[in-house]
Write a sequence for this structure.
């Protein structure tokens, strides 16, 4: 059983992801946290396999929480989850120890794929971010011509 913690400051987001992911027989949401500080404490106590970490939260945001968790639990996989699809957010999460990044627009099948990929030791970047990166490269290419 893959143990998950969902971290998001919006109750409805946490509940929706919990319900969806608990439908997958091999996944179990063992905790929901409303901010990064709760996530740090839950990670210490519960030792999950994967944490789905929102970025914009107070008093401790997802980037700070990821960095902190990484210090005491290098084996916990962390996937940044945000409405933000800009590369700067992705890079900041990865620089601070995240193993992947999925936007909140991503389908549940992609979230499950991200969980599988990071557990396999890979870095996962969702299709929406990858698509925007490809589009940006295409625009830059046209600007040079």
């Amino acid at each position: 059983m893959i143990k998950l913690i969902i971290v998001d400051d919006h109750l409805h987001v946490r509940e929706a992801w919990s319900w969806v992911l608990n439908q997958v027989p091999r996944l179990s949401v063992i905790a929901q946290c409303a901010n990064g500080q709760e996530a740090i404490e839950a990670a210490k106590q519960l030792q999950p396999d994967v944490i789905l970490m929102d970025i914009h939260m107070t008093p401790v945001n997802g980037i700070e929480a990821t960095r902190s968790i990484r210090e005491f639990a290098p084996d916990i996989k962390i996937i940044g989850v945000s409405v933000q699809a800009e590369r700067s957010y992705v890079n900041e999460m990865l620089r601070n120890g995240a193993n992947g990044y999925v936007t909140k627009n991503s389908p549940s099948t992609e979230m499950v794929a991200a969980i599988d990929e990071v557990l396999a030791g890979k870095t996962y970047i969702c299709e929406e971010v990858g698509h925007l990166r490809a589009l940006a490269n295409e625009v830059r290419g046209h600007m040079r011509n």
Q: What stands out?
A: The two ends are 52 Å apart (CA to CA). The first strand starts at residue 2 and ends at 7.
